[in-house]
Amino acid sequence: MDTNPQAAKVVIVEDNASLADIYKIRLELLGYRCFAAYDGQEALAIIERELPDLVLLDLMVPKVAGDQILATMRASEWGKDIKVLIISNLNEADAPAGLRERGIEGYAIKANLSNDQLDQLVDKILKPTDQEEDVDLEAPAVQVTHTAGTELPKAAAPVYKDLIITRTINAPVSQVWKAWTTEDQLVQWWGPENFSCPYAKLNIYTGGLSVIGMQAAGSQGGKSSYSSLAYTTVVAEQRLEFIHNLSDQSGNKIDPASVGLPADFPQGQKHEIIFKAVSLTRTELTVIEREWPVSQMLVMSQLGMEQCLYKLESFLTSPHSS
């Protein structure tokens, strides 16, 4: 994304690439120049090179931990005055000692940090004004008080991003297609970790409707959920395109909130599964889920689909998959 070369720079130190991407997209839309680093060594190199105005620093990153990144910065001429905001899933009481003594702008609990809070925090640090509201970094939401006679700020327009995952699988394209399109095989691998697939009713043809059920493990509450897939394109061993909705077991669309999901969980979402034979024994599989809101939902969906594809690979390499 093109940004003003004079804009304030932000370095995002986060080993979860999907989450770093969300932070980067949102902050670039606010006009910041952003750089992402996925481990501590890369972070130190980028920070020394770019001399950013702010570093968003996760503590638990590979190679060089976040507290050591901060210590190295403060011991150097180039990093001693750079602003740092800690964003971690560690409670501050459990974090390494001495962070505030080394100089940080604040400490945010990652799991409690909404996208809007992130925007507010960065703006507060880099564009301070006397009118800014304090942001409670440990609260699950920001409380906004509206004074009568004043105009509430308009909500930012939602940001959307396609989720695209490509994986090369050591199986012929015919076997990979069969694993996606036959009920007895799909139920053996569908779903992320700690989920099973007890139900699949597949009608895979253009205009057909499939319904797939998932059930969480008992340790995860044991709840069941269903999805309907309405096919718009079916090309054998090449492509599946369908419209995805949360549904009941009969395929009727349901309210996401009724199964504990956010009200803005996407419904009527376009999905594509692309099968490409790269050799007689290997298949390139691409999964595309269109227009996810750029939020934690996108991160969780990517994680779930990646886990699902790992299960698919394990199934296809097992003796009973053919």
Biggest sheet, open or closed, and with what strands and sense?
7 strands, antiparallel
Which architecture of the largest domain would the CATH scheme give at its second level? 2-Layer Sandwich
Strand order across the biggest sheet? Answer: 6-12-11-10-9-8-7
Number of domains: 2
Per DSSP E runs of 2 or more residues, the count of β-strands stands at: 12
Structural class: alpha/beta
N/C terminus separation = 45 Å
CATH topology of the largest domain: Alpha-D-Glucose-1,6-Bisphosphate, Chain A, domain 4
State the helical fraction.
25-40%
Any idea what the CATH superfamily of the largest domain is called?
START domain
Strand content: 25-35%
Q: So what's the CATH class of the largest domain?
A: Alpha Beta
Describe this entry's structure for a reader.
With 322 residues, this protein is of the alpha/beta class. It has 2 domains: 9-126, Response regulator (Rossmann fold); 161-321, START domain (Alpha-D-Glucose-1,6-Bisphosphate, Chain A, domain 4). It has helices spanning 17-29, 40-50, 66-74, 99-102, 115-126, 173-181, 183-186, 296-316; strands at residues 9-13, 33-37, 54-57, 83-88, 106-109, 160-169, 195-201, 209-216, 224-235, 239-247, 269-277, 283-293. The radius of gyration is 23 Å and the shape is elongated. The model is unreliable at 131-153 (pLDDT under 50).
